[in-house]
Amino acid sequence: MASLEDYRRPLDKVSTTQSATLAATGFIWTRYCLIIRPINYSLSVCNFMLGVANGFQCVRAYRHQKALVHSESRLSVGQSSAQSHIPYASRLPASRPREMADRKFPRDS
């Protein structure tokens, strides 16, 4: 239940290390619960859900951090934040051929 409550937290507050560790712990204990005798299915389901919930949370936090790094790197390429909304093609020097200015570059998106 506590893992489900973490979905309400802002992604910048979620620790990818902690989520990955809890996911690994959940999957390891799931395997252990299925090896021991007598097999404890209820505990294995509980640990499996712990692994799935925290694995999903880890992926969400990782994607959020990558998006932040990507947006910061776009601004640190030498353009100010005021220029970041201007398409790249309109900032090309006049000496470039027009067909180059009409091409779409990865930074335009």
Give a verbal description of the structure.
- Belongs to the mitochondrial pyruvate carrier (MPC) (TC 2.A.105) family.
- InterPro entries: MPC.
- One of its GO terms (biological process) is pyruvate import into mitochondria.
- The protein is an all-alpha fold and 109 residues long.
- The protein has two domains: 2-76; 80-109, no CATH class.
- The protein is 59% helix and 0% strand.
- It has four helices and no strands.
- The protein has helices spanning 2-5, 16-35, 41-75, 98-102.
- Helix 2 packs antiparallel against helix 3 (41-75).
Overall helicity: 55-70%
How many DSSP-defined strands?
Answer: 0
**Roughly how many Å is the radius of gyration?**
23 Å
* Cα separation of the termini: 39 Å
| Total domain units | 2
- Could you state the order of secondary-structure elements as H and E? HHHH
Please give the count of helices: 4
Mean pLDDT: 76
Low-confidence stretches: none
- Strand percentage: under 5%
Overall 3D geometry?
elongated
Q: Strand pairing plus helix content: what structural class?
A: mainly alpha
Characterize the main sheet. Answer: none
